[in-house]
Amino acid sequence: MKKLALHWKIIIGMVLGILFGFIIMSMDWGKEKIVVKTIDAYEKVIHKNVNGQVVSTVEYVPAKEIKITRAKSFVSRWIEPFGKIFINLLKLIAVPLILASLIKGISDLKDISKIRTMGFRTIGIYIGTTVIAIVIGLSIVNIIKPGEGMPKETIEKMKEAYQGNADAMISKAKVTQDAGPLQALVDIFPSNIFQSFAEPAMLQVIFFALFFGICLLLIPEKKAKPLVDFFDSLNEAIMKMVDLIMLFAPYAVFALMANVIIAFDDTTILVKLLGYAACVVFGLFLMICFYMLLIKIITKKSPFWFLKRFSPAQLLAFSTSSSAATLPVTMERVEEHLGVDKEVSGFVLPVGATLNMDGTSLYQGIAAVFIMQVIWPDGLTFTNQLVIVGTALLASIGSAAVPSAGMVMLVIVLEAIGFPEELLPIGLALIFAVDRPLDMCRTVVNVTGDATVSMIVAKSLGKLHDDPKPKEWDDNYENVK
Ligand code: ASP
Q1: Residue 179 in contact with ligand 1 by CB distance below 6 A
Q2: 330-364 per-residue burial string, b: 16 or more CB within 10 A, e: under 16
C-alpha cells in the first residue's frame, strides 16, 4: 500500500487536534474554574547600553492570579508537553545544523567572490520582498478600513481584557529601544561562540560559520579536508535527525493545535476583529501568490510542485508560530525536496529565518494603520505611512523568529510615527485577541518567503537541481537493524 504523504499526516494531526480542543472545551467539567498559577506573570526586563552592559533596573510585571478551567489544565498538563518536546527537539538541532551546513556549503563553493555575490543577492531580494509585503498590507488596510466605526464599548472591553498583556509587550520592546543605534550591528559579532550557541544567537552563529568556512577556503586544501569532511558528515547526521523528528510531527501538531484552541476564551471579541483579521489573512494570501509567481517565472518550477514538497514546513510553521523552530525542517525540505544546493540554503535560510519576515512586516503595516483608524485617526497621514514602510522593514529584521515577536516590535513601529504613549497599551490590547492565529499565518509566509528566495538565489547561481531525490529516515536502516 502506498504510504500516506507526510503533509497529509500532519494535516490529519492538526484537524484532530482542533476537534479535540473544541470537544474538550465544550465538556461540562471543562467549565469549572481552578486556580493554577500565581507567579507566572513575572517577567525580567534588563536594560543594556550599546556595550552590552546592564545599565538599569530589573522590572517586574506584577504577578497576578490566573484562573483556568479544568479542561485547559488537562490539556496543558497532559497534551501540550508533547508539543513542547517536539519544538525542543527542533531547536536542539538548529545550531549544529546551521553550523555544519553553512561551513560545508561555503567550503564547497571554492570561490570567495561567489559568496559575496550570494550575500548581496540574498539581502537585496529579502529587502525587496519585505517592502512589497508592507506596501500590499498598507494598500489593503487603507482600502478596506477595518478600523473605522468600532464601537466604544468594544474598545473598552478589549482594553479591560488585554491591557496586562499589552503592558508586558511594551516593556519587552523597551529593551530593544534603549539600545544604541549600532547595537544590532555589534550584536552580530560574538565574543564567546559557546554563549552564542547556548542562547542561541542565530546571527552570531551564522557569522562564525561564515568566517570559519571562508578561512577553510584560505588554507591549503589538504589541511582543510579533515574539517570539511567532519562538517559534511555532521550535516548528514543532523539531516537524519530531522527525518526522525518529523516522524513525530503529526502527533506533535495534534498537541500544539489542541493547545491553541483552548487558549481562546472570549470568542465574541474574535468576531469583532474579523474585519481586521481578514485583511491580514488576505494580504498574507496575496504574498503567497506573489511567491508562487516568482517561483514560476524565475525558477520555471510549478507552484504546485513547490507547495506539495514544501508544505510540511509550512504546516509546522503554522502549528509552532516560530520560524526558528521550523528552520531545520525548512532546510531539509529546501535541500532534499526542492533541490537547492547546500551552499545556498545553508546561508540563505538561516539568514532569512532571522532577518526576513515578510508576513510579520505585512502584519505590522496593517496592525499599525488599523490601530490608528480605531483610536488615533489624526495620525493617518501619508508621511506616517511612509515611515511605517521604513520602520516595519527594520522591525521585521529585528523581530526574533519566535511566537508574538512581531507584536512586540509593533511597539517600535508605532512609536516611530509619534503614536501617543498613553494610547499604546490600548492599541496593543485591541489586536491582542487575534494575535495568535495571525501569528500562525504570518509565520507560514515568513518561511515560504525564505524558501522562495533560496530557490531564486540558487537558480541565479546555477545551484538549483532539477530532480532532487529526498532521503528517507530508513534509507540505511536495513544495513544496521
Ligand atoms: N512568529 C513569527 C515567526 O517566528 C514572528 C512574528 O511575526 O511574531 O516568524
Answers
A1: no
A2: bbbbbbbbbbbbbbbbbbbbbbbbbbbbbbbbbbb
**Contact in structure between 469 and 236 (CB atoms under 8 Å):** no
> Would you list the domain boundaries of the chain?
113-192+266-471
Q: Are 331 and 317 in contact (CB under 8 A)?
A: no
The proportion of the chain whose per-residue pLDDT surpasses 70, expressed as a percent, equals: 89
In 106-181 the beta strands, taken as DSSP E runs, fall at: none
pLDDT: is 287 or 65 the higher one? 287
Q: Which atom in ligand 1 lies closest to the alpha carbon of residue 324?
A: 4
The response to whether residue 385 sits with its C-beta less than 6 Å from ligand 1 reads no
- The model carries a pTM of 0.89
Q: How many CB atoms lie within 10 A of CB 471?
A: 17
- Mean pLDDT over 121-142 rounds to 97
Q: Does any ligand 1 atom lie closer than 6 A to the CB of residue 322? A: yes
Distance 439 CA to ligand 1 centre (A): 6
Is 321 touching ligand 1 by the criterion CB < 6 Å? yes
Cα 112 to chain centroid, rounded: 30
CA dist 168 and 196 (Å) reads 26
Q: Is the CB of 330 under 6 A from ligand 1?
A: no
| Residue 57 pLDDT level (bands cut at 50, 70, 90) | very low
Q: Given a cut of 80, is residue 351 above it in pLDDT?
A: yes
pLDDT value of residue 473: 82
More confident residue, 309 or 266: 309
* Phi, psi for 3 (deg, rounded to 5): -70, 145
Rounded CA separation 82/74 (Å): 13
- List the CATH code of the domain at 113-192+266-471: 1.10.3860.10
Q: How far, in Å, is the centroid of ligand 1 from the Cα of 436?
A: 10
Ligand 1, atom 1, lies closest to the CA of 403
pLDDT in tens, 308-349: 999 999 999 999 999 999 999 999 999 999 999 988 998 999
For β-strands 33-37 and 44-48, DSSP reports them as: unpaired
Query: Average pLDDT of 244-268?
Result: 88
Q: Is 24 in the pocket of ligand 1 (CB under 6 A)?
A: no
Of all protein residues, the one whose alpha carbon is nearest to atom 6 of ligand 1 is 406
467's enclosing H/E stretch is: none
Q: How many CA atoms lie within 13 A of 338 on its CB side?
A: 39
Q: What span, in angstroms and rounded, lies between the C-alpha atoms of 91 and 324? A: 8
